[in-house]
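Milestone 3.1: sequence recovery, worked example.
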């Protein structure tokens, strides 16, 4: 009996010890989480303060803040939506300060500002599975934005508002621009190879010398667009509207054109490729 009681007591003691150990481990884990969240908060606060430093003399500071937020979004998925909103706000506010008409002589710089480019890259390359069901892509108003030479390869810009934006020589290869509004936008020499432009609106867009080869242009509205010298080889133009479009010098070899509207489209001897 004494031996049995001793064994039972030992088991009880061991169980109590294990429970105490588990409680200690859980408490230590909670303390670590609190400390980690505190570090994340400090990193976030410092990065936002860096973004708030305006002026060309603070460019490196702003770039550091963007990179810090990009890293924090990876380390702390729970903060990802908040960081995404901060990036969107920074992009839109910075672009709005520099916005102007997209036509010649508008004052648009020859290329996209470095901080805007880095912020856009961070936004496009984010882990979209952490967006918490939101669609921040549609929350960036880029109307009349100065984005010449911007790099946005494989960017998700579905339904984006890019009316009258200056996207001359932009790199938009494989970009998702479904239903995007690019009316009167300037896309001279822009690279839109393999881009998805289904049902996009490009009424009166300036696409002089643009690369649209292998692009999905089904249902796109290119009424009155300037496509002189554009590369449309192997593009899918089924059910697209190209009425009054200027196709002089355009390359049209291998296009799909079922139901395409080419009423009063302008072509000449320099337009190459069989249309129908």
């Amino acid at each position: 009996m004494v031996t049995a009681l001793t064994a039972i007591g030992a088991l009880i003691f061991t169980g109590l010890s294990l429970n105490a150990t588990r409680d200690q481990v859980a408490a230590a884990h909670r303390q670590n989480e609190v400390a980690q969240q505190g570090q994340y908060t400090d990193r976030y606060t410092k990065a936002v303060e860096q973004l708030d430093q305006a002026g060309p003399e603070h460019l490196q500071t702003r770039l550091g803040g963007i990179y810090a937020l990009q890293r924090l979004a990876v380390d702390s998925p729970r903060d990802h939506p908040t960081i995404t909103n901060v990036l969107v706000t920074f992009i839109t506010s910075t672009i709005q300060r520099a916005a102007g008409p997209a036509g010649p002589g508008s004052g648009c710089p020859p290329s996209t500002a470095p901080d805007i480019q880095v912020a856009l890259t961070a936004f496009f390359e984010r882990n979209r599975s952490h967006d918490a069901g939101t669609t921040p892509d549609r929350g960036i108003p880029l109307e009349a934005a100065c984005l010449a030479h911007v790099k946005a390869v494989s960017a998700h810009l579905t339904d984006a508002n890019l009316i009258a934006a200056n996207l001359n020589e932009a790199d938009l290869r494989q970009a998702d621009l479904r239903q995007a509004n690019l009316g009167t936008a300037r896309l001279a020499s822009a690279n839109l190879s393999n881009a998805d432009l289904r049902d996009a609106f490009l009424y009166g867009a300036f696409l002089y010398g643009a690369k649209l080869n292998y692009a999905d242009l089904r249902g796109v509205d290119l009424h009155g667009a300037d496509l002189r010298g554009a590369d449309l080889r192997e593009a899918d133009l089924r059910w697209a509207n190209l009425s009054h479009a200027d196709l002089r010098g355009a390359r049209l070899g291998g296009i799909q054109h079922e139901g395409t509207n080419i009423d009063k489209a302008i072509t000449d001897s320099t337009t190459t490729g069989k249309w129908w």
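The two ends are 102 Å apart (CA to CA). DSSP finds four helices and no strands in the chain.
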